[in-house]
Write a structure and sequence with these properties.
Transp-assoc_OB_typ1, mainly beta, Mop_domain, 44% strand, 1 helix, 4 strands, Molybdopterin-binding protein
Length: 68
C-alpha cells in the first residue's frame, strides 16, 4: 500500500492497550515514544502486537508545537 502522507516514521510497537472501543498503540521511534488512539477493530485487522514493526503516520494539520 502507498500513502500520500510524508510524515511516516518506522518504529517498534512497545504497547497495545485496548479499551472498550478504542486502543492506544505506543510506538518507539528511536527513543521517543508516540501514542496513537485507534479502534480495537483496526488493531485486530492490522495484527498489531507488542514487539512488531509499524509506522507512525503523522498528519501535519494535527501536530501542535509549544515552547515555554
Amino acid at each position: 500500500m502507498k500513502i500520500s502522507a510524508r510524515n511516516q516514521i518506522k518504529g517498534r510497537i512497545v504497547e497495545v492497550s485496548k479499551g472498550a472501543t478504542t486502543a492506544h498503540v505506543r510506538i518507539d521511534i528511536g527513543g521517543a515514544v508516540v501514542t496513537a488512539s485507534i479502534t480495537n477493530e483496526a488493531v485486530d485487522e492490522l495484527g498489531l502486537k507488542e514487539g512488531g514493526d509499524a509506522y507512525a503516520v503523522i498528519k501535519a494539520s494535527d501536530v501542535m508545537v509549544a515552547v515555554d
